[in-house]
Design brief:
- One of its GO terms (biological process) is protein transport.
- By secondary structure, the protein is mostly helical.
- It folds into two domains: 154 residues, Ferritin (Up-down Bundle), CATH 1.20.1260.60; 54 residues, no CATH class.
- The radius of gyration is 25 Å and the shape is elongated.
Length: 256
C-alpha cells in the first residue's frame, strides 16, 4: 500500500508541474488573442463610421470569438490554480469537494479545445487514471461536473444575431457612433455576410486614405501597397468616380 501511495503522490506532483507550465504558457497565449480582439474591435468601429453596418456585424463575430477564448483562458487559469492549491485532494478523488471536481472536469474538457496548452492533455491522462473513465468521458463531452459556461465559451454560437448587435452597440457607444438597426434586414445580413468574400475584409491602410465622404485625404502620408488593387479601395467606400491613374497623376503634379 505504501508503494501505491508513493506512486500516486508522484503523479500528483507531475500534475502540479504540468498545470504550472500551462499557466506560464497561458500568459503567452493570451497576447495574440488580445491583439486580434483589439484589431477586430477597431474594424467594427471603422465599418460603422463608413456606414457599413452589415460588415460591422460580420466583424463582430471575430470580437465575440476572441472574447470567448480570453474568458475561457481566465476560467482555465482559475482551475489550474485551484488544483495546484488543493493538490492533496487529488490523491483521494472520491473525497474531493465539488469545486475541485469542477476544476478537474474543466481541465479535462479544455484539454480537447486548447491546442495552445498541450500540457493540459498530459494532465488529463493522469487525472483520468485517478478519477476513472466514466468521470473523464463526461468531462470530455462537456457534461457532468463541467461548468456549462466553459462549454459555451469554446463551442457557443458566435453568429447569434442578438449577441452581435449587442457587441456592435457597445463598440459604437465607446466611439460615440449612432447605430440604427430598425431598417436592417437580418436575412440580408445572413445572406451577405456569412459567405463574405475575402477581398471584402477591411483594409486598414485603405481606411486611413478615405475620409467620410469617400474622397482622398489631402496631405496623407499613407499609400496603398503595390500588391493591392486600388479599385478595391474605391469600391469599398462606394465611390466609382475615382480612378487609380487619376490619383497618381494628381500626386505627381503636386510633387512637381
Amino acid at each position: 500500500m505504501g508503494f501505491i501511495h508513493r506512486r500516486t503522490s508522484k503523479q500528483t506532483v507531475k500534475v502540479k508541474t504540468l498545470l504550472g507550465l500551462a499557466l506560464t504558457r497561458l500568459a503567452v497565449a493570451r497576447r495574440p488573442h488580445v491583439a486580434r480582439r483589439s484589431i477586430s474591435s477597431s474594424d467594427v468601429s471603422q465599418f460603422l463610421a463608413l456606414g457599413h453596418l452589415d460588415r460591422a456585424l460580420h466583424r463582430a463575430e471575430h470580437v465575440i470569438e476572441e472574447d470567448n477564448i480570453l474568458e475561457a483562458f481566465s476560467i482555465i487559469e482559475l482551475y489550474c490554480n485551484r488544483l495546484i492549491e488543493n493538490a492533496k485532494q487529488l490523491d483521494k478523488p472520491h473525497e474531493c469537494d465539488e469545486d475541485t471536481q469542477e476544476a478537474v472536469a474543466g481541465v479535462m474538457f479544455a484539454a480537447g479545445w486548447c491546442g495552445e496548452l498541450p500540457e493540459l492533455l498530459f494532465a488529463r491522462n493522469i487525472l483520468e487514471n485517478k478519477f476513472g473513465g466514466d468521470f473523464a468521458m463526461m468531462a470530455k463531452h462537456g457534461t457532468g461536473a463541467v461548468d456549462p459556461m466553459l462549454v459555451w465559451k469554446f463551442s457557443g454560437n458566435k453568429r447569434n444575431m442578438e449577441l452581435k448587435k449587442k457587441v456592435v452597440k457597445e463598440i459604437a457607444a465607446e466611439n460615440n457612433i449612432q447605430v440604427n438597426f430598425s431598417e436592417f434586414s437580418e436575412v440580408a445580413e445572413q445572406d451577405g455576410c456569412d459567405n463574405m468574400p475575402h477581398h471584402q475584409e477591411l483594409n486598414h491602410k485603405a481606411i486611413y486614405q478615405i475620409d467620410m465622404d469617400g474622397s482622398s485625404e489631402s496631405g496623407s502620408g499613407h499609400s496603398p501597397p503595390h500588391d493591392e488593387d486600388p479599385c478595391d479601395i474605391s469600391d469599398f467606400d462606394g465611390s466609382k468616380s475615382v480612378q487609380p491613374k487619376e490619383k497618381k497623376a494628381t500626386i505627381s503634379v503636386r510633387t512637381r
